[in-house]
Amino acid sequence: MSTLNLLAAISLAYVALLFSVAFFAERAAMRGRARWFRAPLVYTLSLSIYCTAWTFYGAVGSAARNGFEYLTIYLGPSLVMLGWWWILRKLVRIGRNQRITSIADLISSRYGKSNLLGIGVTILAVVGSTPYIALQLQSVTLSVEVFAPAQFVDEGGPRFTAFWVAAGLAVFTVIFGTRNLDANERHHGVVMAIAVEAVVKLTALIALGIFVVWGLSDGVSATLARIDASPLGTWSVDNGRWAGVMLLSAAAFLCLPRMFQVLVVENDNDAQLRMAAWAFPLYLMGMSLFVVPIAVTGLELLPPGSNPDLFVLTLPLSQGKEGLAMLSFLGGFSSATSMVIVAAIALSTMVSNHIVMPVWLRLRVGSASVSGDVRHVVLLSRRISIAGVLLLGYLYYSLSGGRTELAAIGLVSFTGVAQVLPALLGGIFWRGATRVGALAGLTAGFVIWLYTLYLPSFGPGTVLPDAWFITGPLNIAALRPEALFGVGFGDKLLHAVFWSLLLNTLIFVAGSLMSEASPLERLQGAHFVSAQQAGSGPRSWLQSTAESEDLMVMTQRILGAQEAQALFLREARAQGVEGDLPASTPEFLQRLERELGGSVGAATAHAMVSQIVGGAMVSVEDLMAVADETAQMMEYSARLEAQSQELTRTAGELRRANEKLTRLSVQKDAFLSQISHELRTPMSSIRAFSEILRDAQGLTRSEQNRYASIIHDEALRLTRLLDDLLDLSVLENGQVSLNVTEGRLEDVLDRAVSAALADEAGSGIRVLRRRVNEQVALLTDVERLAQVFINLIANARKYCDADDPVLRIVVTEARSDLLVDFIDNGSGVAPEAQDVIFEKFARVSDQKAGGAGLGLAISRQIVARLGGEISYLPDCDGAAFRVSLPLRQVLAAQ
Amino acid sequence: MSGAGGDLPKRRAGKPSAGATQVHVERQTVRRRRLIDATCALPLLGWILWWLPLLWNGIAEPVPSSQALIYIFGVWIALAIGAGRLVHLLNRSRPVGSGA
């Protein structure tokens, strides 16, 4: 038991070392010294999880059994890495741009964030990986058995070992794999620990190889001679398997969830990939270099019948090199643990994001922002998923009872995950690939794989009835699991690979051609296929009614309070918004969704933002609605613009009205003083002369007469003034009754001219008329019309300041109006006075203050009553007034 | 080679530059394009070389394992060195500001 105790102690010490490496790497990364962990070398070494215990132990076993076929497992991935420019460069960029968290997430994202596809790939990955994890547990227990006495095995020790290895790995993975949620912060601790393990396993194999070549043999040439002399002496590899397994391993290298995790998800920059492109093939070469020498030496030195899968341990032990055996054990242990850890992380991410979270969200519809702590739920679901994945692996191990051939299980698993390849490559190179095609192809591939390889791998009669293998189900020979359509290939694996991938691809292509992609799919397809032009984001949120606060609350729960606040603050700064809540613009929602996608997967993030934003998946109807909304917004903004123009116009009018009112008020004040003066002057003379008449003695008769007539004249003047005011007030109140009679325009003008120029004959303004045009019959209030004309002519006489004043009276007929223009040759009315001359009390100037300023106001009222209009013509040489009367009155008269 | 064109630096049209620089830039572009072509061709070469053993089964005289091992591992090392060399040259010829 002492060896076993030593083994346990060394294993524990090694695990402690890994814990501390992971712990310090995490600490350093948290302090921002992550630069070193992003080194291309660390990335390259982390890819070594491809070399699991299967390859560590199984490669030698495979070489001992089948010769050189084991090489294909390494050659395929080497070709993929060498061809990095073709596929990996694109995958890695898509992974970074779209914040892809797993291969299921990639497929789901590409095909319109379809969660159904995500679930499908997840199930496929879990089913395919479980035996693989069981294989790792088995290899560890097998390697322990080598060191242990027989009674350990009898006491159920292997199961005990397997259980505690699984439990320990679960703890490690939970601690370092679910520490943070944002995929942007990658699993530095885990990656660092894996890099260390990569070095350990390479060192172990190379040390053993050196011991075999130079310790047990005499150098290279002697070893080569030994190989040629051994049962593996000549090249004898089945052509079909050489080609088929190489392609299969290349496909699996891209599609294995754990490989996708380290290749794409943990990738930080292109430089990492560029180094891995040449360095990882070298690593694989190093891992496989000494496999054949070890196998040949083992076959030669060890007793026949010993398990070739364990040559790496039994060979040094048989030579008494316990230390080397320990190192080999650690190498195998490293291979197993690193694979299990990364596979558990990758699978738990997929299970949690595509199965647990959607179910959880579905159960709490519409409450992503108000329900419990999502961050907590995500972490919990991941931890439970990790434990679940490892438990499945352990159960598979205990139930299968530990089968002998390691390589067989590995290749079964490879074939399963390779079913994702058509959808993956189609997704990144073919824009026409659709969700329906991918789903159909995957399902077909999965079912064929299950039927032809996975279920038969349990052995005939275990799951599938024995008879099926001989006569086919229901005696249909074409459906025999190992010879579909009667074609057997002579090899179960090749048969399954051929039919599953062929039908998968055919159905995928046919399904894509026959179905139509949704708009979201087409958008994502364009993003993925043209990922070389980096920077283009995923589809946008056009319908943004999201409340920033709700988004904030939700983001806090997923990313944690500090990160969320920092993110929102950054966004707010970028938007130039005051405070720390950015507006929920489409760009922001898109970025937020991508950020959340890093934690919970694209589909879940989309669903969560959808719940808050209010729209589910973007359908054609949504796009229509968005288009409608855009049109509505445009219309609305056009209306707003029109309204604002109208408001501007109204404001201008109001301003002008206000100015006019102010001027009017000033004029009114002026008029009041004027009218007081006008009233006061005749009053004064009336009072003065009446006092004279009353008080003075000895006035002559003629004097009395003169004074009395002055009083009389002044009283008349007062009366006239008051009449005018009364007249205006009556007109304005609309109480006037028109006395409509027939008349001729010429007569009216004659009367007006003579009346206006009568009182001060000779003080002359010449009046020019064309009587031909004045032969118009009128049916109107002729007296009132004459009053207007008199006023206009009198005004011209009074105010025309030309040396030789001339007044032209022009009569024209325009459309439905009769126009009578009064144009003098004076300087006209000043522009600022033009709009107030028709107001009451308006006077152009004080210098010729002849009237009370009521003439034009009265004229305007009269013309208005007659159904016409009087206006000032601003662009004539002198003052020009136009009286327009509706012609129908005229016609009525004719 | 559909991916090859996407990364090439686009010549800035309309910007006056000395003829010598122009020629230099173009030569660099052509050189880079050739490097990318070589990078794309390398895995195809590896694929062909590693599938050559398929022919060995038809040969009357069996191929000794030592020769097979030397051939396969020789190709492996040569491909890795070739890829490393190409990556190195690509890194050096990376146009400024392309971010590739």
Over all CA atoms, what is the radius of gyration of chain A? 52 Å
Helix-strand category of chain A: mainly alpha
Strand order of the largest sheet of chain A: 4-6-7-9-8
Instruction: Determine the strand fraction of chain B and express it as a percent band.
Output: under 5%
Share of helical residues of chain B: over 70%
Low-confidence segments of chain A, given as residue ranges, are 533-546, 615-622
User: What summary fits the major beta sheet of chain B?
Assistant: none
Which superfamily, in CATH terms, is the homologous superfamily of the largest domain in chain A?
Sodium/glucose cotransporter
What Rg of chain B do the Cα atoms give? 20 Å
What is the mean predicted local confidence, pLDDT of chain A? Answer: 81
Q: Can you name the CATH architecture of the largest domain in chain A?
A: Up-down Bundle
Given as residue ranges, the uncertain stretches of chain B (5+ residues, pLDDT < 50) are: 1-18, 96-100
**Total of domains of chain A:** 5
Terminal residue distance of chain B: 17 Å
**Hey, which two chains have the biggest interface?**
A-B, 44 and 40 residues
Classified by CATH, the class of the largest domain in chain A is Mainly Alpha
Structural class of chain B: mainly alpha
Compute the number of strand runs of chain A.
9
